[in-house]
Design a protein that fits this description.
Strand content: 15-25%
Radius of gyration: 24 Å
Helix content: 25-40%
Number of helices: 15
Distance between the termini: 39 Å
Largest sheet: 7 strands, mixed
Low-confidence stretches: 1-9
Strand order of the largest sheet: 14-15-16-13-12-18-19
Structural class: alpha/beta
Length: 487
């Protein structure tokens, strides 16, 4: 089914000409929006603001392309998805540089995301959902199979714009769905270029990308031409997505917010555990749904672990992701910067103690210092809510069942981690945490073959593994009466 078009030989610029892709064609719009480098606050590009009529065109093209793509043999679909991974890997350096410019993450984070995304395409391309034969006798045969759900709308966040797009694109295409991708208006560049770059591998309309503002997301979630919405973002926005999609009973995959606990047991070596806990909390500058956002440290080692965290944090460079030695970049966008600042202001107003940091200086760029808050009250805003930025509460505990209760005392249930030398105790505690992923003496280990999803208000459905692939299908049971005189 792969097509040969002008895309196959054209050299696509990663510095200019950002377009939407609709029905295999590059599309501009009457209105554009600026994209900023968060490290400088300067405009680096402009992108189309998709109109409602253009969205209709993209969804209409996807609907027209769906029957042919769904009928394409699975092995051909898998081969094309694998080829998309190869194409991304071929242009890895371009994507890494662009990702740093628009998202702010340093080279190491950009490399992990881009190369990981290429690998994700390759691995998801190996997956399939075979038919299940429930009964096969001389009289009857009963088979259950997975059929593609239809046309998917993918709404992608700004913290991992490539990877979290791939988590939707790859299984949708393998399952036989067509898909329209909406990047975040804060980080649209890499996703627009990726979709543009692979059009020669796909029939027109199978994979489109449209950039726009918040109105575009609302139009998508309510649009009768979409059969499913795959959304990653905040829990608050996820509730609006769910309400909007209810009008047409769209299928939903919602990967939402978290307030992940990290529980440090009393037998740890503070010097060894501190770097691991630091990166559990501050990876991607804590702009991470699965960041550790509450660290519970046993009172016997609390002071030592806190001091080791402070000492380690002082060695980590925060700066422009384009500089080679930068380890943490800026907050990605101004609205999020203002939100994070509110948490700092509240900590000062409530008289919380800062073990490190606590003061935000004015630009250039949206930079926030790594900040550790020393044992704030359990009901403080910083503990209860999700700041999505580099400010972390450290909390004391003494009783195992009490810390488990406190860890679970949240509407969220995305991830958690437990740290200790006594492996039986580590696993005993971990198995009592109400979260979709619980890491024991490690953190942020993901795999295309490992299911990922949230409990409670952290989401609905799953991504990755065969569970995630199944999210892009409907189950269909077919029964056959073999009796010659049945009709």
């Amino acid at each position: 089914m792969a097509l040969t078009t002008e895309y196959a030989t054209a050299r696509i610029s990663f510095d200019t000409d950002y377009v939407s892709t609709i029905d295999g064609t590059a599309v501009t719009s009457p209105t554009t929006a600026d994209v900023f480098n968060p490290a400088t606050g300067q405009v680096i590009a402009s992108v189309p603001v998709t109109t409602e009529a253009q969205l209709d065109e993209a969804i209409g093209a996807a609907r027209r392309a769906f029957p042919g793509w769904a009928a394409t043999p699975l092995r051909e679909r898998q081969a094309i998805v694998s080829a998309i991974g190869d194409r991304l890997a071929e242009h890895a350096e371009d994507f890494m540089a662009l990702l740093t410019r628009e998202q702010g993450k340093p080279r190491a984070g950009a490399e992990w995301e881009v190369l990981g995304s290429a690998a994700w395409f390759k691995e998801i391309a190996t997956q399939s959902l075979p038919e299940e034969t429930l009964l096969d006798t001389e009289e009857r045969r009963v088979v259950t199979r997975a059929t593609p759900v239809g046309v998917v709308g993918a709404i992608v966040p700004w913290n991992f714009p490539i990877l979290l797009a791939v988590w939707k694109i790859a299984p949708a295409l393998v399952a036989g769905c067509t898909i329209v991708v909406k990047p975040s208006p804060f980080t649209p560049l890499c996703d627009l270029k990726l979709v543009e770059l692979v059009q020669d591998l796909l029939p027109p309309g199978v994979l489109s990308a449209v950039s726009g503002d918040d109105d575009l997301g609302k139009w998508m979630t309510a649009h009768p031409g979409l059969d499913k919405i795959a959304f990653t973002g905040s829990s608050e926005t996820g509730k609006h997505v769910m309400a909007s999609a209810a009008g047409t009973l769209k299928r939903l995959t919602l990967e939402l917010g978290g307030n992940d606990p990290a529980i440090v047991l009393p037998d740890v070596d503070p010097q060894k555990v501190a770097p691991a806990v630091f990166w559990a909390a501050f990876q991607n500058n804590a702009q991470f749904c699965n960041a550790a956002k509450r660290v519970f440290i046993h009172e016997d080692v609390y002071d030592a672990v806190r001091d080791a965290l402070v000492a380690y944090a002082r060695t980590v460079k925060v700066g422009d992701g384009g500089e080679a030695d930068t380890q943490l970049g800026p907050i990605q966008n101004e609205p999020q910067f203002r939100k994070v600042r509110e948490f700092f202001d509240d900590c000062h107003a409530q008289g919380h103690t800062f073990a490190l940091g606590g003061e935000i200086t004015d630009g250039p760029g949206w930079f926030v210092p790594v900040t550790l808050v020393d044992n704030p009250p359990e009901d403080s805003r910083l503990v209860v809510e999700e700041p999505f930025g580099p400010i972390l509460p450290l909390l004391k505990w003494s009783d195992e069942q009490d810390v488990i209760r406190r860890a679970n005392d949240t509407p969220y249930g995305l991830g958690a981690s437990v740290w200790g030398k006594d492996l039986a105790a580590v696993e005993r505690v971990g198995r009592q945490i109400d979260a979709g992923t619980v890491w024991l003496n490690e953190v942020h280990q993901y795999s295309p073959h490992q299911v990922f999803g949230g409990h409670k208000e952290s989401g609905i459905g799953a991504e990755n593994s065969l569970h995630g692939l199944a999210e892009y299908t409907n189950w269909q049971t077919i029964t056959l009466n073999k009796a010659p005189d049945a009709v």
